[in-house]
Amino acid sequence: MKTKTILLAGSVLGAFAVGGVTVVAVTHEAVTDRIADNQYQAMQRKLTAILPAGASDNDPLRDHIEVEAKDLLGSDATQVYRVRHGQDPVAVVLEPVVPDGYAGPIRLLVSVMHDGTLGGVRVLSHHETPGLGDKIEELKSDWVYGFKGKSLNDPPLEQWGVKRDGGAFDQFTGATITPRSVVNAVKNTLIYVQEQGERLFEQAAETPQQIAGGQD
Amino acid sequence: MKASQGYAGLVEEGVWSNNQMLVGLLGLCPLLATTTSATNGLGMGLATTVVVVCSNATVSLVRNLVRPEIRIPVFVLVIASFVTLVELIMQAFFYEMYLVLGLFISLIVVNCMIIGRAEAFASKNSVDRALVDGLAVGLGATLVLTSLGALRELVGQGTIFNQADLLLGEAGKHLTLYLSDDYQGALIAILPPGAFIGLGMMIALKNVIDKLAKRLSGLRRARPVPSTTQPTQPATG
């Protein structure tokens, strides 16, 4: 009798598990394309914002490679999107990680034009203090727009730092560490792109399945 | 009293007199983490409401099928499934909102308010009553989350319903309310301590209102009836 009760309870529980998993699996199957599409579009909007309008005729999100340069780009695998117009290289967009943020790593999106100037910088994700370090976010302040058009010559390399360190970039009231490390990471990204030169454009693109699509 | 309660009584209890967040102090984790703005609070509240309504209905439907020994695992399964569904649907249809709340949606699974309603109410009541209870409790939670979010956003940032369009589409833009442009904001309201302080003030306010209401009704009657305060649920979780 006891065994029967246990078995019965077990099978009811099992039935619920199967039912729950089925419902979730069916829904997942139904919306998975839509979710991928959302991620793709969100990433595309971010790319468009830091590239000159109409400068390219390829789809950088599908023309991307993965590079490894932990010293300069902060992570073991960094996505690089190539922006081209016909055969001509226009820009590269990288996803470097700022390893030394105030509260953990900060993920950036940096576009470097082919002439070495910055097309723009955006923050993809961060954990900085609300109200202080989070001014690196586009929504919170204009600070991040200040990178546009800058290059390793303008300001000169030794001035790539926040003003407190004698550099050319503003820090925020109450937060120096965050902007300092972001400025440093952007500088390193520029150095990396300069070092690599045309090589970034020559590598064959990764297979489409590996599109990162900007998930966290 | 409980068994004979009508729908109106259920709603009154869920939204006010037994509000799970202000009286039960349940589900504090999402409450404190997500209420940095009114929009986030509303989004979290709506997601919680969907889950509590669905789980209440399901638990009530199967209440005679599920043996007492396995009821808790079954509740957890039901709740986890619904939360995952909500998360997927949000990702598919409210992607921008998902980017903001995504991390916390999965936390609804461990919101003891939901399993609390399943155990304390839905597993002992008919489906229609469980549905009404779920709606009322969800509405109560949404109200608390939204007002706490609005309070913290107003003090911390000087806006209310900023970026409401993430949740409500273009129409949401009209909801946004701005204080003067040069308001600097008090950072503490956005940081976690602000959530505790804000919640404390809301609980105090509710108690003051209750006390005033009692005194008023006491004055109206010639002789005050002996107080019949109903016992509140113990604070757990």
UniProtKB/TrEMBL annotation, chain A:
Q: Which UniProt keywords apply?
A: Cell inner membrane, Cell membrane, Electron transport, Flavoprotein, FMN, Membrane, Phosphoprotein, Signal, Translocase, Transmembrane, Transmembrane helix, Transport
Localization, UniProt: Cell inner membrane
Any single GO molecular-function term of the entry would be: FMN binding
Q: How does it sit in the membrane?
A: Single-pass membrane protein
- The signal peptide stretch is 1-17
The record, for SMART domains, names: FMN_bind
The UniProt record lists the EC number as 7.-.-.-
GO biological processes: electron transport chain
Q: What's in the GO CC field?
A: plasma membrane
Q: Which residues carry this modification: FMN phosphoryl threonine?
A: 176
Q: Output the superkingdom of the source species.
A: Bacteria
In Pfam terms, one family for this protein is FMN_bind
The cross-references to NCBIfam families, in alphabetical order and at most eight, read: PRK01908.1, rnfG
Q: How does it assemble?
A: The complex is composed of six subunits: RnfA, RnfB, RnfC, RnfD, RnfE and RnfG.
Role: Part of a membrane-bound complex that couples electron transfer with translocation of ions across the membrane.
Name listed for the protein in its UniProt record: Ion-translocating oxidoreductase complex subunit G
What organism is the protein native to?
A: Thiorhodococcus drewsii AZ1
Give the source lineage, highest ranks first: Bacteria, Pseudomonadati, Pseudomonadota, Gammaproteobacteria, Chromatiales
Q: Which gene holds the coding sequence for this protein?
A: rnfG
TrEMBL record, chain B:
Entry GO CC: endomembrane system; plasma membrane
Q: Which UniProt keywords apply?
A: Cell inner membrane, Cell membrane, Electron transport, Membrane, Translocase, Transmembrane, Transmembrane helix, Transport
Q: Which residues cross the membrane?
A: 21-38, 44-62, 74-94, 100-118, 130-151, 183-205
Q: Name one GO biological process term.
A: electron transport chain
Stated membrane topology is: Multi-pass membrane protein
Assign the protein's first listed, main location to one coarse class: membrane
Q: What is its EC number?
A: 7.-.-.-
| Record carries keyword Signal | no
InterPro entries noted in UniProt: NqrDE/RnfAE, RnfE
Cellular location of this protein? Answer: Cell inner membrane; Endomembrane system
Assembly description: The complex is composed of six subunits: RnfA, RnfB, RnfC, RnfD, RnfE and RnfG.
Purpose: Part of a membrane-bound complex that couples electron transfer with translocation of ions across the membrane.
Q: Which family does it belong to?
A: Belongs to the NqrDE/RnfAE family.
Protein's name in the database: Ion-translocating oxidoreductase complex subunit E
Q: Which organism is it from?
A: Thiorhodococcus drewsii AZ1
